[in-house]
Amino acid sequence: MAGPAAPALAPARTGETAARAARIRRNWLLATPALVLLLLAASGPLLVVVVYSVLEPGEYSGVVWELSGEGWFRVLFHRDIFDDTLSLADAHLTIFWRSASISLLTTAITLVLGFPTAYFIATRPPTQRMLWLFLVTIPFWTNLLIRTFAIMEVIRNEGILNSWAMKLGLIQAPIQILYTDTAVLIGMVYVYLPLMVLPLYAAMERLDFRLVEAAYDLYASRWRVLTRVIVPLVRPGIVAGSILVFIPSLGAYVTPRVLGGGKNMMISNLIELQFGEGRNWPLGAALSMTLLAFVMVALLVYVRNMSKVERRG
Amino acid sequence: MNRRLTGALSALALLALTGTAAAEGELNIYNWGNYTNPELIKKFEETYKVKVTITDYDSNSTALTKVKAGGHGFDIVVPSANYVPIFVQEGLLLETRPDKMENFKNVDPQWVDVPWDPGRHYTVPWQWGTTGIALNTSIYSGDPNTSAIFMDPPPELVGKVNVVPEMNDVIGLAIMYVGGEPCTEDKNVLRQVRDKLMAAKPKWQSMDYGMTEKMSNGDVMASVNWNGSTFRVRLKNPKVVYGYPKEGYVVWMDSVAVLKDAKNVENAKLFQNFIMDPENAALISAFARYANGVKGSEQYMPEDMKTAPEIVVPEKYKAAGKFLPTCSKAARDLYTAIWTELRK
Question: Which first-to-last residue range defines the signal peptide (chain B) (predicted)?
Fold first, then answer.
């Protein structure tokens, strides 16, 4: 640990302490612009969102400066338009559930696909690895929107997938994939797969393969080697990759917007709806904070997991 | 006499000054997607040596929200009739007095003294059309002239209908479907509207824009759609027909307005005047396939538009068309509430 090395134990060497204090002061001074920028750029907008979430909605968008808990209230409760009866906002709950389940599924599928990929790359000779990694990063060269439209072209009713399956006689009529949750899931797995492969690879590259050999020498089966040796050793990579995939998945906007057809919303689309057509900025702001809370929970899980790993490791 | 002359001269000088200042510059148009003829823009650019940039939006509410938020950099916006008074009330439009512009004489008299902009002090007609039903007859051969196609889809169309997420059009169609009048505040009618829409939603495939492409290539089989878009679909996919719901369908007009915080006001005014020229108005229609409000533009229009059933409303359906007025605030709030419930 690179913490302060207990200078208080040597009070006689005041000159050194003073120099140290000066150095710390200078470091703080140098860091100030960055800190101020971070504070303003990160907390400022967030603060605006917090404040907006407790105001009244304006008539055509925007807010009226009157305190109101209605925005937060409506995150979870629904007031009937006509008879004012209260009920749980099941539409919101459905959307939260869809976001969480699609994100979890995306994480699981990318892990299943990404793990062997990363293992494959990590077991290539060092000279080849760069080439494979380079191939993994190629999708990032193209804009996300364009890639999403490309997916659309593949899964459309008259798209590549359906027309080939029909030509091969596998199906008689096109299967409706576009504008379903499945379409959103396919899109998200495609988009976030590299984010899983890269941290997994980073962890596997450091893996000491002599341990794998040793396990085999001790008559461990393939499955045991995987579950008892490899997985525990690359655990930090698995956790990091899962977090890197899960968090942006929760907030995904473009993929569900394009492939979900405006009917299968995720949280981000719901937030956008409130800031646009719904003209209810406070509710939109409260929903944004809810999403933030979800992300914080995911991060907390991550931090707890990582500290466990460190304690063990 | 002398004073008038000086006045006229200084006005001329001012005009000349601003004229030259504006002659070479920019114009930023904020318009509905897939709605602006590139040829029209090219002609305007060449005539006035102006660089035009077009940005798309997909709904009136998107346009209103973005313009109201400020910092957009747009000079021109093209809201529908029922949104023009909102833009005006919110102080977002510049009173450019198109009625005093040179080409205003070409505007069809029926589009001059319009309720949303009496005497045309702010806006110039862009295009007008109807909102009805587009149906691919290869999958369903029943009557397309009914809102039941999306309000109560026949079995063949379950899971295959799209509804464009344009609130006023959809709510308007739904109100007329249950027997009400557009802009009604009658809660009994609106409750039916909400319940029917909520019951129909699970039978829809999507709520999305872009039907010109998606219906042409068969991704969507039926949709609430605009007439001109459906016309363009039919040219690529002859099996698609346009239906005028007999329960009532929506008639609308989009108008070109200059924004109050426009940076290129003179160019924007030039554009307003430019599109009231019949030849230019015809260019607008030739691309997006809607009628415009300019007299004499017909002679420059493509031949196929003169007989198209999407453009020339058949006599027997004429009476069912209703122009969407700007509704009261109470009505609008109810519609927004229903709409948000439907969308989630």
Answer: 1-23
